[in-house]
Structures are given as C-alpha cells and as structure tokens.
Amino acid sequence: xxxxLVAAFAALCLSLPAAAQKVEVFGGAAERASSSLVMFGExxxxxxxxxxxxxxxxxxxxxMLDKLKGKLNRLGKDMWTTFLTTVPVEIGGAKVEPxxxxxxxxxxxxxxxxxxxxxxxxxxxxxTLPFGDQTWTPDVLCPLTLNKDGAKESAKxxxxxxxxxxxxxxxxxxxxAWGKHTLTGALKIQLAK
Length: 193
Fold this sequence. Notes:
Blueprint: H1 2-20, E1 32-41, E2 44-53, E3 71-74, E4 81-85, E5 89-91, E6 94-96, E7 99-107, E8 113-119, H2 120-126, E9 140-147, E10 155-164, E11 171-179, E12 181-189
Antiparallel strand pairs: 1-2, 2-4, 3-7, 4-7, 5-6, 5-12, 7-8, 8-9, 9-12, 10-11, 11-12
C-alpha cells in the first residue's frame, strides 16, 4: 500500500508543472527550398548549400526597407535558414570557414545589407532561435549589394541562389531575390584538393 501511495504522489508532483505551464506548439511539415553547388574533379571537391523557408512577398514590404536600418533580422520562414560549406568561401569579400551556420540578415545604420552567419553549434547550445528580437552577434558578416527593383520579374516567394561561373567555377554569385529586389554578393570558392 505504501508503494502505491508513493507512486501516486510522485505522479501527481510530476504532472503539476506540465499542467501549470502553457506551451504553444508550432511547426510540422514545412516547405523548404535550397540551392547547392557540388563540385568535383581531379583531386578536388567542394559542397555548398543554403536551405531556407520561402515567405511570400507582400506589397507593403516596399515601405519597410528603411525600418530595417540598424537591425539584425531573421531570414526566410519557419526555422533557421542554414548555410553549409565543406570548403572556405568568400561572400561579398568576407571569408567563411568550412562549417554549418544559421543565417540572418543585417542591415547596418547606413542601409547596407549583410548576410549574417552564426556557427550553428554555438547557436544550438545557446538556444538561439530565429523568432523574436535577434540579439545574437554574427560570427561573419558578408556584404551584399541591394538592387532595388533589380529583378526582371517580381519573386512572389523568397529565393536564394548559389551560382558558379561556367568558365571559372571557383567564382560565382550568391543572390537573394524577393519581390522586385535582389541582394547579391560575389562568391569565391576555395576548391579542396
């Protein structure tokens, strides 16, 4: 009898915190997009991928560009946008070491945009999430060039593209397109031997 009383009391105590705390749950099967470059040849190989959720463009976003100044923002939709590289690369002249990163978008006080990268393991250990105020400090800021109304067609869904130059695959471009705007940065790939 005493054992069953102890078990009932333990069950009651363990259930109290769960009942007292309200937990909201989001998520499930999300639409994700990615762009990859995989290169290999005689004695060399490289792999680079950016994976992201695709938010839909809204016309009122045009008037919000100036409100981004001086802020670090989430990039994409749902969980983190991620960037993985097996070789050193440069984006917009900033060096990114091999590894896995979570990605945000920084707009400095002058209105210049940067891809903001944070080591994914560091982000996970700190419990950093892409929701709410972004107060984390990027490990790498990659300068990007804003082309207002630079897209031929309005991108209804955000897209990010890694593209290699056909004549010199160690050079290329990172492009983020959303609405009629694009953000671009030169991509330089240090091919592994």
